């Protein structure tokens, strides 16, 4: 093990599950979370306070069951480390500003100028995270500069860095085929992970709705392309498919997950989200943790 690998391993220790791998919870959604809630009686979207309340409940009820928790600065980590975040769980701070037109997915990201070294250290984050929208034929130099600035911020703060890649066609439309999307996921992993970062976070390789049969093989390709640990996210995966997708991805070399929607999305629109978070989401997190431990140890 090189000195750099040893240093990275030390930085990642606060995010590791006692049973093995990384079993991390994502709660950094912003406008996409707002759209999950039913509109208010007057037809307007829910307020910022509704988002803050949901995140606070989820932190309280779920953080003890995850090896780390990803939170945003605008709605979850405004001034200090959340008081209801389990003290022995690693805080991952999202330091990305999301450009997201109304009713659409995120189209671009930049670094949050308010997520300074002082702020990262003040809130006790052990890692920071950056989302990068990856296109096969454009934006190569811009995203390289963005990731390098992000990695530099993490190094100056003395924390781990998680680079997340989401792949899109150059025209931001639909992929012409599943095969082209699968190739893009591998290519993005290869390109973005080479720019630095402690962990790479990517979409589930080889996944097709209702079918995880190609996930292991495609995950092996990502493992070969990434020089370091990588984990899967749940965006784009049907809730009922995610557990099997995680199992196959870990069998192909992934070291776990950093996921949100597949764990808690179906609680948002219920009359009392706390009930669903306490019951369904807690159970899912434990089941996913067991899957990661079994798959990595197999």
UniProtKB/TrEMBL annotation:
Cross-referenced SUPFAM superfamilies: Aldolase
Gene3D superfamilies: Aldolase class I
Pfam families tied to this protein: DeoC
Keyword RNA-binding part of the UniProt annotation: no
MF terms (GO), sorted A to Z: 6-deoxy-6-sulfofructose-1-phosphate aldolase activity
Record keywords: Lyase
One GO term of the biological process aspect: 6-sulfoquinovose(1-) catabolic process
Family stated for the protein in its record: Belongs to the aldolase LacD family.
PANTHER family for the chain: SULFOFRUCTOSEPHOSPHATE ALDOLASE
Protein name: Aldolase
Organism name: Mycetocola tolaasinivorans
């Amino acid at each position: 093990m090189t000195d750099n690998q040893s240093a990275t391993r030390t930085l990642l220790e606060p995010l590791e599950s006692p049973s093995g791998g990384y079993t991390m919870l994502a709660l950094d959604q912003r406008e996409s979370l707002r759209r999950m809630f039913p509109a208010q009686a007057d037809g307007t979207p829910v307020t910022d306070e509704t988002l803050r309340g949901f995140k606070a409940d989820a932190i309280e009820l779920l953080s003890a069951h995850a090896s780390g928790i990803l939170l945003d600065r605008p709605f979850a980590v405004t001034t200090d480390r959340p008081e209801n975040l389990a003290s022995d769980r690693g805080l991952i701070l999202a330091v990305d500003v999301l450009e997201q037109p109304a009713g659409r997915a995120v189209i671009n990201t930049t670094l949050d100028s308010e997520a300074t070294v002082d702020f990262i250290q003040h809130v006790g984050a052990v890692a920071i995270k950056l989302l990068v929208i990856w296109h096969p034929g454009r934006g190569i130099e811009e995203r390289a500069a963005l990731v390098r600035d992000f990695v530099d911020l993490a190094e100056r703060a003395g924390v781990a860095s998680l680079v997340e890649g989401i792949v899109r066609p150059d025209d931001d439309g639909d992929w012409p085929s599943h095969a082209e999307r699968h190739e893009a996921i591998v290519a993005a992993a290869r390109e973005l992970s080479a720019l630095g970062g402690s962990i790479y976070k990517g979409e589930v390789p080889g996944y097709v709705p209702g079918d995880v049969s190609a996930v292991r093989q495609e995950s092996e390709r990502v493992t070969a392309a990434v020089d370091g640990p990588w984990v899967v996210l749940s965006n784009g995966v049907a809730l009922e498919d995610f557990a099997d997708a995680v199992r196959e991805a870990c069998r192909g070399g992934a070291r776990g997950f950093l996921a949100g929607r597949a764990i808690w999305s179906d609680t948002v629109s219920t009359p009392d989200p706390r009930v669903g978070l306490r019951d369904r989401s807690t159970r899912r997190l434990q089941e996913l943790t067991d899957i990661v431990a079994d798959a990595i140890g197999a």
